[in-house]
Amino acid sequence: MERIAKVALAYSGGLDTSVIIPWLREQYGVKVIAVIVDVGQPEDIPAIRQKALASGADAAVVVDAKEEFIAEYCFPALRANAIYEGQYLLGTALARPVIAKAQVEVALAEGADAVAHGCTGKGNDQVRFELGYKALAPQLKIIAPWREWNLVSREDEIEYAAAHGIPVPATREKPYSVDQNLWHRSAEAGILEDPWLEPPDHVYALTSAPSEAPDEPAYVEIAFERGVPVAVNAQALGPAELLNVLNRLGGMHGVGRADMVENRLVGIKSRGVYETPGGTILATAHRDLETITLDRDTQHYAMLIAPRYAEIVYYGQWFSPLRQAFDGFIAAAQQTVTGTVRVKLFKGTCTAVGRQSPNSLYRQDLATFSKDTVYNQKDAEGFINLWSLPTQVFAGANPELIRRGLRHPVK
Questions:
Q1: Which of the following is catalytic: 12, 16, 186, 257?
Q2: Is the dihedral of CA 199, 201, 206, 209 positive or negative?
Q3: Whole-number Cα distances in Å, 383 to 237, 379, 386, 405
Q4: HEC profile of 290-339
Q5: pLDDT of residue 399
Q6: CB atoms within 10 A of CB 96
Q7: In the annotation, is 125 catalytic?
Q8: Would you say the pTM of this structure is higher than 0.90?
């Protein structure tokens, strides 16, 4: 087996990666480069860097990827209306490929032989990281400690960390696995593993309880250009700042909570609690803007591929040709998705209540129930005759098959 001398570790400072640094040094005798990718997590990044060095890392590199994360990963998924199993806005799944990309870039620049991550052998993230590695630098070896070591639980990790003098954020009382970035916050494990139990209040951090949200609704206007959000309440903002603003507004009004049991790629059903306040506002507004800016067939086809796009992201296939091909269609379809949507935030809900666009296909003179001079209602008779022609022909040739569909067949 070829010897590994230097490993680039995706390092977060959390429980898993905190214990991996000394473990890699003990088990492999390697130099460890901790790669800390800033995607908007709330932790003190300089402190995390110092913790990595104090834990035994030979070097610690910080990569600021916040703008790239939102602009090049979250917004493309937003334009595709990608929501996994109808609830999950893919905050963790979208962050993994940008972290893997930054990690590979550091590994190559530092002459590392391998990359490592702290994902468990039961989860989706191991797939997301490793598909990224294999797509971008297949020559690098991959070390996945959770698939090798004899630490079989988070409790074991906590004890290992204590034995090595490494402080970790998890405790036996609150052993949650938390992931947070600019797009969302997720919580798993601990008592959340019982799907019957309601999540306790302390699980949530980004959003107010809807019952405790303000008694007056807030109205927010989101402007889009070609499907990309560019302004909030007429104020132009960059991607990261736009999310910060909407996270604060949505969080204040309890918007963006999801408690779901999802189907992991590895075949396990897992319960996750998600908070995506800004992303929920954007997803609501974007889908609504499409209703007046996309023609019927394009809108329906976009709705058809949206769940498949979400699966691609969830399954770790960000760097796949299919995702790139879908992006080609989406880029063409979004050319007209420019305009402004007004949403109402109230007690945990986000509702689109107004929309306008220079490319709007909505015509009041056609849609009105009042008198109009542009639509000849008599034309509908000929249209219906032609539209129903295949049905009539089939029914004439197969009367018994058609009659079986009647509740009281004609005899």
A1: 16
A2: positive
A3: 48, 7, 5, 25
A4: HHHHCCHHHHHHHHHHHHHHHHHHHCCCCCCHHHHHHHHHHHHHHHHCCE
A5: 86
A6: 29
A7: yes
A8: yes
Predicted confidence at residue 169, as pLDDT, reads 62
Catalytic residue among 12, 177, 186, 208: 177
DSSP β-ladder status, 235-236 and 228-232: antiparallel
Q: What span, in angstroms and rounded, lies between the C-alpha atoms of 117 and 133?
A: 11
Output phi, psi for 7, to 5 deg. Answer: -125, 135
Rounded Cα–Cα distance for residues 58 and 220 (Å):
48
Residue 2: what pLDDT?
66
- Angle ∠(296,299,303) on CA atoms, nearest 5: 135
Of 49, 79, 96, 154, which one is the catalytic site residue? 96
Which of 38, 113, 125, 288 is catalytic? The answer is 125
Which residues of the chain fall below pLDDT 70?
Answer: 1-2, 168-175, 372, 406-411
Is-catalytic flag, 297?
A: no
Domain extents in the chain? 6-72+87-173, 180-356, 376-411
Whether 156 sits among the annotated catalytic residues: the reply is: no
Q: Say what the pLDDT of residue 255 is.
A: 98
**CA nearest neighbour of 206 among 241, 250, 174, 245:** 250
Q: What is the pLDDT of residue 1?
A: 46
Measured distance CA(411)–CA(405) in Å, rounded: 13
Instruction: Quote the CA–CA distance of 13 and 366 in Å, as a whole number.
Output: 59
Architecture of domain 6-72+87-173: 3-Layer(aba) Sandwich (3.40)
Q: Which residues contact 32 (CB under 8 A, 6 or more apart)?
A: 6, 7, 9, 21, 24, 25, 56, 57, 58
180-356 sits in which CATH class?
alpha beta
Give Cα 274 distance to the centre of its chain: 10
Look up 360 and say whether it is catalytic: no
Cβ–Cβ under 8 Å, residues 230 and 274: no
What pLDDT is recorded for position 62?
Answer: 98
Q: What share of the chain is helix, strand, coil (3-state, %, to 5)?
A: 45, 20, 35
